[in-house]
Amino acid sequence: MSMKDGTKWYLIVSGDGLILSKGAQWSRDRRLLTPAFHFEVLKPYVTVYNEAADILLRKLETCSKSGESFETFSVLSLCTLDIILRCACSYQDDIQTKGASHPYVAAIKDLMRIIFHRAVSPQLHPDFIFYLTKEGQDFKKLCAYVHQLADNIIAKRRQTLEDSKESGEEDLTKSRRRHLDFLDILLHAQDEDGNTLSDVEIRNQVNTFMFAGHDTTASTTSWVLYSLATHPEHQDRVYQEVQDILGGRDPPHLEWEDLPKLNYLTLCIKEAMRLHCPVPIIGRQISAPIEVEGKVLPEGTITDVNIWNIHHNPAVWGTNIWSLTHVGSCQKT
């Protein structure tokens, strides 16, 4: 199976990254990217999470003092984008504070809006029609801006690495006094033949993580907050668990070693993701004939995996599926 043709619109924006690549290309990408998810690489990111969370909490506190309701997804989306930009390429530019006024944030928001609108507008599916419209022209300009920003970051990092080598500073973290990020891993990645990634390939991987990561993470976090708010008994237990682990720390930051101790919070997150999965359906296109329950699906057939339906199957989860009562069962979550 491979990604269905509809994903080509995302491909224009993010490029042929890990999510949209296929076959041998995907296998190579997966091998090269594996080191980026080693625990020793991920550990320093906790500091980034805490810094971004502090900004988020200050914003939420301001919103709560107004006494009015507010939409949490956009606030969380800025936070997750801020974190991914910092962890992926050490890019820090007050994303959460500037919000939609930041050109990169505005570009991503507009790109996603255009892609979704095109997806539900059959008349805009053909490229020759779409690019004659104002949306099509805007789409081109926004893609060019996002790609240029990534190219500039990559070029600057390559120059920094060259300068470090010339000065004899081989240790990346010491030479720039920061954590090893996703971009560092990509710039040093080599396949079995010793080939490195081109700037375009690196840009594709970075953009893939930006687009695929921040929106789904913000959606998941929003639903977790909703689930806890509508089930205060579980929310109270999660709060107490976190407070017990923090033990009065100042500042109240969680460390890497604390994460495995968050057992009840983990169960609540998993149950919320089951009830409100961030990716409810996965589309695929059959690349070769395949037999399913005695029926042959020919090559080119578009298929969907209905994750939402699987997660709400009463034969597995019972009839009480809109509740966090499963939270105490590790097997079911």
TrEMBL record:
Coiled-coil intervals: none
Record-given protein name: CYP4F2 protein
Pfam families linked to this entry: p450
One annotated GO molecular function: monooxygenase activity
Keywords associated with the record: Heme, Iron, Metal-binding, Monooxygenase, Oxidoreductase
UniProt KW rRNA-binding keyword: no
Cofactor(s) essential for the protein: heme
Family statement drawn from the similarity comment of this UniProt entry: Belongs to the cytochrome P450 family.
Source organism of this protein record: Branchiostoma lanceolatum (Common lancelet)
